[in-house]
Amino acid sequence: MKKQSVSALLFILSAYSSVSSGMGQGLESGAENKDTLNKESLANFTPVLSVEFKQLLKTADAAAGEEFFMRKCSSCHDEYKSDTHGKGPNLWNVMGRKAGSAQGFDYSDAMRQSGHTWNYATLNYYLTDTKRAVPGRIMNFKGIRKDKNRAKLLLFLRSMNDNPPPLPD
């Protein structure tokens, strides 16, 4: 009897996970199906920001994004303008830069061949689930689950640019 109960519970959890997998990712609802949300890499997929996530970007706090960056990202990435790299590539001017193209950093083949350019939508998609976005990447970071944390981080990354891109409409 216990074995059947566990099997039933696993089935229900699996079904719930499939239904809810696209929620809370700052992506346009209806723009992706379950396979896209779970399996599509940026090499084959162009993400679109949801209206809700665009609003989060407009109200996010860049100072809070900097604090988040210092806690979660700065051990591998630099936040200042420089041609040097740490364990990860320097992120100055990351917005607008082709993925895997910062001079002097040894990227994975997966990142170099992903073919996308970093912008609000691609960074949001990548930071939601790095393994899904660029399978085979070297970066040992699963992602940032909360939309509000990604929004404030993206706002901070925007400030790390010679010509910060406008916020999306």
**On the 0-100 scale, what is the average pLDDT?**
82
Q: What is the SS-derived class?
A: mainly alpha
CATH structural class: Mainly Alpha
Query: What form results from the Cα inertia axes?
Result: globular
Low-confidence stretches: 1-24, 28-38
Let me know the number of strands. 0
CATH topology: Cytochrome Bc1 Complex, Chain D, domain 2
Fraction of residues in helix: 40-55%
Beta percentage is: under 5%
CATH architecture: Orthogonal Bundle
User: Could you say how many structural domains there are in total?
Assistant: 1
Provide the CATH superfamily: Cytochrome c-like domain
Number of H- or I-type helical stretches: 8
Main sheet summary: none
Keyphrases for this structure?
single chain, 169 residues, mainly alpha, 44% helix
Outline the secondary-structure elements.
Blueprint lengths: L1 H19 L13 H6 L11 H9 L2 H11 L36 H4 L7 H9 L1 H4 L13 H13 L10
Question: What do you see in this structure?
Answer:
By secondary structure, the chain is mainly α. The protein has one domain (2-159): Cytochrome c-like domain (Cytochrome Bc1 Complex, Chain D, domain 2, Orthogonal Bundle), CATH 1.10.760. The protein has helices spanning 2-20, 34-39, 51-59, 62-72, 109-112, 120-128, 130-133, 147-159.
Q: Care to give the gist of this entry?
A:
The chain has 169 residues and is an all-alpha fold. The chain contains eight helices and no strands.
